[in-house]
Amino acid sequence: MTRNQTQPVSLEEITALAKRRGFVYQTGEIYGGLANSYDYGPLGTELLLTIKNLWWDYFIRRRDDMLGLDSQIMLHPQTWVASGHVDSFTDPLVEDLVTHKRYRADLLIEDYFKKNPQEQLVIADLSTKELADLIDKYQIKSPDGNPLSKAQDFNILFETAIGAVSDKKSRVYLRGETAQGIFTNFKQILNSNRQKLPFGVGQIGKSFRNEITTGQFVFRTLEFEQAEIEYFFDPEQNNWQDLFRDWQNYVWDFVTKVLGIDENNLRWRRHTDQERSHYSQETSDLEYHYPFGWKELCGIAYRTDYDLKKHQEFSQQSLEYTDPQTGKKFLPHVIEPAMGISRIFLMLLCDAYQKDPDRERLLLALKTNLAPFQLAVFPLLKNKQELVDKARDVYQQLRQKYQVAWDDRGNIGKRYLAQDEIGTPFCLTIDFTTLENDTVTIRHRDSAQQERLAISELDNYLASMLA
Ligand code: ATP
Questions:
Q1: What is the pLDDT of residues 166-204, one digit of tens each?
Q2: Is the pTM here over 0.70, yes or no?
Q3: Are residues 332 and 239 in the same domain?
Q4: What is the mean pLDDT of residues 203-232?
Q5: Which of 151, 247, 252, 440 is deepest in the core (most CB within 10 A)?
Q6: Residue 221 lies in a domain
Q7: Whose Cα sits closest to atom 23 in ligand 1?
Q8: What 3-state class would DSSP assign to 413?
Q9: Would the CA dihedral through 94, 212, 154, 341 be positive or negative?
Q10: Among 83, 283, 343, 345, which residue has the most ligand 1 atoms within 8 Å of its CB, making it the best to mutate?
Q11: Cα 191 to averaged position of ligand 1 atoms, centre (Å)
């Protein structure tokens, strides 16, 4: 069973499940909530950790040509001047002149043309001035029906200050992407690791963007985790198109094989020349079919030597690589695969969410390696001490190896339904027969089928099922 077009899931359903079962809560809900900000509850925290561990293992530990890094959230402020973010990290902003709510002009126009298809335009290609002209020409209004201000560039870097004074000298930025920490540490990584090109550096960490658009749950938040790689190479030795394709394939396999996402819900989209970021010569997004449309899950960009060149220029320090064989000195080029952890998280919930009307249940058909709990153990009745003791033994034994949930509330049927909703692949029930012959009932999440198994066989059985 997979999610498909006949079983569409809405963002509201995902949000409700996430809240009800402790995956995601709105930040500061008791104060009315903070826009575009979410906290991860007990199960969400487990899922996030699992995603990051799988990413780290697949992209860093498994490869000879990859190194890890953990740089600061507040980098030297010159970093962002050199990288171009202080000048160009902008979104086109418009304000409702009556309510003063703010919107992204490009997204409002996109919505307008979806409802009124007068012009065939690639909105992402348009400059802020062209967006402003379109709003004028079609008298496009805010979602509340009010006139809009003129579209202007709005820088989405968050500023803060170091120390007691708050002036220009103390100003720093919360990083808008993790990538810059990799570039500014490039020389130290080279000096301390004797790594030969081509090689990559990856890191997972928080980034911050003062996003204007609201209402897309964890897809677009002010604070979010990125998993980014800069893959350095000599453009005279490696063809960038080949490396680009290799990384596309490697990322595709991660998403489809490691995370188990349905290929029908994925597609690559190449950026147009106008749409590409200032630093990129080629960009392709891997898009996922979220409940609100095809949207970017991750991007792969060929950033050339743009960033190293800029940091070399602004720092007046050589960031060149010396080829150990030929002695040639040059600035390496990079391919950058960049993913958002919370976009992976949301994709997993959407892809796994299934309605099973025959059994009147909802289930999260997560791959077994992703489920917050791999197993749940139940005593059939909670007031029969022999059953509880036996179940407790089995539970303690399995916890040595697996993430195991314990539940002794209500009837067994309700406990199954509760585990289905959080994606637990197997439920084990200890009943009176267990006390006679040391067997348990195993119930499978996806088929809802049950079978009986000896406790002595559990270890081998689970090892094969959860591999
Ligand atoms: P978008 O066009 O959706 O704003 P972007 O092109 O600006 O995204 P990148 O700068 O390429 O995004 O960032 C790399 C990755 O970081 C994205 O593919 C996405 O997964 C993630 N990401 C970017 N912005 C956010 C955000 N505000 N909230 C959550 N994840 C984000």
A1: 677 788 999 999 999 999 999 999 999 989 999 999 999
A2: yes
A3: yes
A4: 95
A5: 151
A6: yes
A7: 340
A8: helix
A9: negative
A10: 343
A11: 31
